[in-house]
Amino acid sequence: MGDMRDTQPMKDLSGDACDVSSFRNGLLAWYDTNRRDLPWRATRDPYSVWVSEVMLQQTQVSRVVDYWPRFLERFPTVAALAQAAPDDVLGLWSGLGYYRRARLLHEAAREVVDSCGGTVPSSAAELRELPGMGEYTAAAVASIAFGEPVPVIDANVARVLARVLAIEGDVTRGDGRRALREDAARLLDRDRPGDYNQAVMELGALVCTPASPHCEPCPVAAHCRAVSIGDPTAFPKAAAAPRTVALFETAAVIVSGGRVLLERGSGRGWWEGLWTLPRVPLEEGDDPEAAVREVLAARHSVALQSPDGPLDGPLEERYSVTNHRVTMLVYTLAHGGRDSAARGADDSSRWFTSQELAEIGVPAPDRRVIERVLRSRLESPGASTRPGRRRR
Question: Could you tell me if 187 and 269 lie in one domain?
C-alpha cells in the first residue's frame, strides 16, 4: 500500500507543486527498463550488498564489477571475512584504492560476528553503529537488502534532486543539505525503497550527468524545475574545490635474488596495513638520494658499498590521493648481502617474490614501480636502471 502522501503535491523550495506519485512511478518505470545489469543487483543478501556499496565509494563501477565477485568468492560470508587475515583482505583489495575502506569493512565484519551473532543488522540506525558505516552506506544496505524506507544521498542523488526542486543553495552543507535530506525523504517510494534509491542514483549516473544532462529522455523532466527554468547545469551550486596540494617523496626498490623488500604501512597514513616500498616524504631543499640512503641505513641496516653507490635512478612515479598530487622519486638497489641484513628487527619488513607480491596489498603506485624495475632487470639484466641524476 502506498504512502498517504503519494497523492499529495509536494512543494519544492520555490513554491511550485510536484506530483510525487507521478514522479516516483515515472522514475521506477524507467529504472525497470534501463538499469544497468550489475552483478550486485541480482542479490538482496545484506553482506553482499554491503561489500558492493563500500567498494563503490569513490571508485568507478567498471572496476567494482571486476573486484566484487572475486572478493565474495574468497570471503562468501561475513563470518569468512571476519576470520580472514588482514593481509588477505588488503591483498584482494589491492588496486581499488582508499584502503581504509577495506580495513574498516574487515573491522565491522568482526563486530558483526562478535556482537551481532554473525547477522548483519537490518536497520540503518543499527548499521551506523558498525565501524566505518556512514549515513550513505547504512541507508543503502538497509533499503536495498531489508526494504527499510530510508533515503540514500550520494553525489548523484544530490544533483538530481537539486535540479528537480531547483535548490539554489549548497546541498553539501548547512540549510541546503538539510533541505535536500527532507525532500529526499518525502520523495522516497516506501513500497520499493531499495529500487527507488538505486533508480535516482542510476538517473544521476546515466542521464542527469554533471556537465551535459540528457533532459529529453529523462523520465522526470516534466517534474524538473531546472528544466522549466532552462538551465539545469546551474543546479546544484558547485562547492568550492579543495586546494590541490603538491607533495614529494623518495622511495627505494631493493632487489635481492628476484625478491623485493617491502615494509609495513609506511607513508603519510594512506597505506596503513599495506606493504609498501621504503619511502620518506621530502621537504623543499631535501636531497632525495640522501634521504633514501638514510632510510636504508636507519630502517633496514643496508650497508652501501661506498658513499656514492650503488643506487640507480631515480625513476619518477606520479599519483594522486584525494586532492594531493604526489611525485615519487624512486632509486633502485641490487642488494647482494644476506636478506636478514635488510630485515626489520620487529618483522615490519619482509622480502617478497613476484608470486607473493601478487597476493598481498601493495599501493598501486608502488606496484607499478616494482613491475617497471623487475621488467627492466629481466629485459636487460646487465644494464643499469640509472636514467640520470636529478635534484630538487
Answer: no
Are residues 129 and 59 in contact, defined by beta-carbon separation less than 8 angstroms?
no
% of the chain exceeding 90 in pLDDT: 69
Q: Are residues 70 and 201 in the same domain?
A: yes
Q: Is the peptide bond before 314 cis (omega within 30 degrees of 0)?
A: yes
Does the model's pTM come out above 0.85?
A: no
Q: Does a structural domain hold residue 384?
A: no
228, pLDDT greater than 60: yes
Cα 86 to Cα 137, 308, 333, 357, 389: the distances in Å are 22, 39, 29, 15, 38
Catalytic choice (53, 148, 263, 289):
53
Q: What is the pLDDT of residues 164-205, one digit of tens each?
A: 999 888 888 888 888 899 999 999 999 999 999 999 999 999
Which structural domain, as residue segments, surrounds residue 289?
A: 245-379
DSSP for 256-322, please give it: ETTEEEEEES-SSSTTTTSEE--EEEE-TT--HHHHHHHHHHHHH-PPPSBTTBS-EEEEEEEEEET
Q: Phi and psi dihedrals of 352, rounded to 5? A: -130, 135
Active site residue 148: no
Q: How many domains does one find in the chain?
A: 2
Amino acid (1-letter code) at residue 247: L
